[in-house]
Every structure is written in structure tokens, then in C-alpha cells.
Amino acid sequence: MHSLTGNRDQVLQLMNNTIQNMESGGPQAGAAGIGAESDADISVVADLRMGFMEAQVEGATAAGLGATEEEEAGWYVPRNRQVAVFQSMMDEYLAEQNAPEVPKGGGGAGAAAIGEEDVSHAEIAADVFYQGAAGPGAGGAAAAALMEQFSNLDPRWVSWVWIKAQGWLKGKHAFVNHTSLNDFQFDMKDEATVAIVGDWGGGNAAAQAVAKQINAIKPDHVIHLGDVYYSGTPKETQERFIKYWPRPSEPGRSLALNSNHEMYGGGYGYFDITLPAFKQPASYFSLSNQKWRFIALDTGYDEHDLHGQQDEWLAAQLQDGGRKNILLSHHQLFSAYENTDASKLYTKVKRFLDAKQIYGWIWGHEHLCVAYQEYMGIKAVCLGNGCFPYNPPRNQPQVPVEWLNDRAQADDPDYRGMHTFALLKVSPAQVDITYIDEDGHEAHTQKWNWQ
């Protein structure tokens, strides 16, 4: 991921300029032989504009609280479909243009405004996306002035955006529903190892380090809880997820959940690349033996909700008694450290919680590793720190926490948080969980008992 795509102000400035050029049908759009004339074209521009406005509102709302530590240090990951897709377009275009990175220690990746302190990023953006740039060394004021003039957009970039946006914003991939309540069931040995990692699809050094640790263990099964950045496009899925995915030992399985970032790009990378690569028929499934059953749900297709007849399928799995049930999902049921609206998801699973049919639940989404004390009648784990830079929270938890991975990295003063996966050793009597950091350190252990 290019550092420029993690700079919130640069992303939104370029997004606004690009939208203005597309809306105007100005000389750059015209030079490319493209204009917002068809219904499809108008829809694309309107969709991008709506996302940009939502990001502006979100920014204004958060202004009183200040930027997050991640945004300050240049890792902007919006929970906004259109902006995430725009970041994907930027990132791919920067790669095609062989755009240089900002030198280490140079020019403020996460500066609050474009200016002298952010000159390196502004110059790269001007040189790659805009015509008439004076080039590196032009100075912050000149680069900032150029950035503000959408008439100087490079027509190659504008035409490229039209093509990509029309494809990536074309709507959702078709959902795969079960036809039988026994569909999507996989067997697991009574003695088995399962590695679980969440929010891992960045292809960066942290993701590769986590994968190296998983590969060294050679678990029977490896499960991803979702998130390929920025918007799970086919190219990102291939180059940031499949390329580095840790392989289970034969005849074990790789399995992957759907998520909001995969669906930002319509889910095409997930449904057309990940599922066939893993020989996985659908985005929800169960993996079970005689005593334990992992039930994975798709909370990404409809964000923080269950699409289709998943609740009907889930009910059928839970009626098959004699096993302890552990749910897997991308989105959380609750959070100790951020405000989250899980009302739709909770409504779908409340009857199962009330009936004590769910023993445990492991999810991602938040870039943290948190083991909760029993809450809402279940054991729960947040495992979303697979690759993305983060800092452990300092605020008091809103929900009882057994353990938070706040171990500090020695070589990254900006992002203290370690990246972690969980190794589950499944036996009839218990599931032993070991949380392992990217450097192989065993950070914490838990025991989930059958009795």
C-alpha cells in the first residue's frame, strides 16, 4: 500500500478534484473522450460524490476529538465504501506509474493539512495525478496550489477512474445461498489445530510475518476473519491476500469470511477469487468434529447483519446437539473500546444466545486483540490485528476484558501494537487457545472447556 493512499487529506483532496472534473466534463474528461452523459456515468459520479460528502461529515464530527493516531501517522482506513474504492484506484494507479514513496523520516505522512510539512506527499500527488507539476523540490506552496486546481488533472488519471469506478461500483456480486440446511458443512478431526487471523489482507511486512509464523506451525486449518485492503478488488485479493496466504497441512482446509472491505469493491475479489482458490462454496460454513463446531457467518454482504437465509441455516446447525458451538464472523457482537451498532446482528442471534446454544464467538473488524471475560452468556475474542498498524487503546473498557494485547513493538515507535493470530488446539475435552505475535512470542493462553 502506497503511503499516499493513507494520507486522509491527500485522498479527499484528490477525490474532490477528480469528482469535479468528472462532473464538469471539462477539457481533461473531454480529452479522454469521456463525459458524464449516460445514466451509468451519472450514477458513478453521484456515488463517488455521496461517499466524499459522507467522509467530510465524518471528519467534521470527529474534528472535536482530533484525528486518530493511525490517521496522524498516515494510515487512513475509512469505513466508507466509496472512499475505500477510491483509495484502491489511487493505489493501483500509483503502482502503475511507479510512483516513489516518501523517504523515511520525510515530510509528514499524516499531517493535518497540505503545506511545507507535507511537501513530499503533495509533490508526489501533483506529479502523478496532475499535469503541470514543477516536480519534486517545487515546494509545499506550489504543490498545494496545484493540488487545488482540478483543471490541471491528468486526463490519463481521469479516464482511468471512469473505467475502474464503473467496474468497481457496479453493485454487489450475487450472494450464494444454501439449498439444503446441510450445505456448507466440513469435517474436522477430533484432535486438530486451527489457526485464525483477522484483518490480515494487506500484503505488508506485518501480514507476511504473521503468515511465516502460521506456516512454521503447519496447522490443520487456517481461517481468515475478513478484510482485504482497501476494497477487496480482484487485484488486491490476488496480490495482498492469496499471494501471501499461509497454507494448512494436507488434507486441511483454508477458509475465509466475507467482510465490509471485501464488499466495498462489490465482493468480486472475494466471491470470484478467494472462494474458488479455497474450494469454498459459500461465504458461510461450519467446521466440526464430534465435540466442537465452528460456525462461520457472513456479516459483510449486509454490513453487520446476516444476509439471506443465514439465520435459518444457523438455527439448523444449532439444533444438531451434542457439540459446543463457536461462532466466527467479521463483525463484533459488542466492543470494549469503541461504540458499535450491532443491533441488526443481535436481533438475528438473540434467540440462540437466550437458549445458551452459543458457547464462544471469535470476530475481527477492530484492529485489536482482546480476550473478553464471559459476557452476554458467551466467551468472546476480538482478533482483528492481523496486519494493519494500530496502537492499543488507553481508555477504560466498556465491557469486562480478560486480556488485551498491548505488547509493544521494539522497532516501530509510531505503532506499538503487535500483530497476532490465534492457534486453537482442539481436543474432545477442551480447546486450548494460544495467541501468537508476529515474532513468534506466545502472548496469552486460554482454555475453553467442554464441561
Protein described:
With 451 residues, the protein is of the alpha/beta class. The chain folds into 2 domains: 3-168, no CATH class; 185-449, 4-Layer Sandwich (Purple Acid Phosphatase, chain A, domain 2). Helices cover 35% and strands 16% of the residues. It has 14 helices and 14 strands. Strands 1-5-6-7-8-10-9-11 form an 8-stranded mixed beta sheet, with helices on one face. The protein has a 6-stranded mixed beta sheet with strand order 4-3-2-12-13-14. Strand 12 and strand 13 form a beta hairpin. The chain is globular.
Describe the structure in brief.
With 451 residues, this protein is an alpha/beta fold. The chain has helices at 8-24, 27-31, 39-62, 69-72, 81-96, 119-129, 140-147, 155-168, 205-217, 234-241, 260-264, 268-278, 310-319, 343-354, and strands spanning 185-187, 192-197, 221-224, 254-256, 285-288, 292-296, 324-329, 360-363, 369-372, 379-383, 401-404, 420-426, 430-437, 442-449.
Sequence-ordered SSE layout with sheet pairings:
Layout: H1 8-24, H2 27-31, H3 39-62, H4 69-72, H5 81-96, H6 119-129, H7 140-147, H8 155-168, E1 185-187, E2 192-197, H9 205-217, E3 221-224, H10 234-241, E4 254-256, H11 260-264, H12 268-278, E5 285-288, E6 292-296, H13 310-319, E7 324-329, H14 343-354, E8 360-363, E9 369-372, E10 379-383, E11 401-404, E12 420-426, E13 430-437, E14 442-449
Parallel strand pairs: 1-5, 2-3, 3-4, 6-7, 7-8, 8-10
Antiparallel strand pairs: 2-12, 5-6, 9-10, 9-11, 12-13, 13-14
Helix pairs in contact: 1-3, 3-5, 5-8, 6-7, 10-12
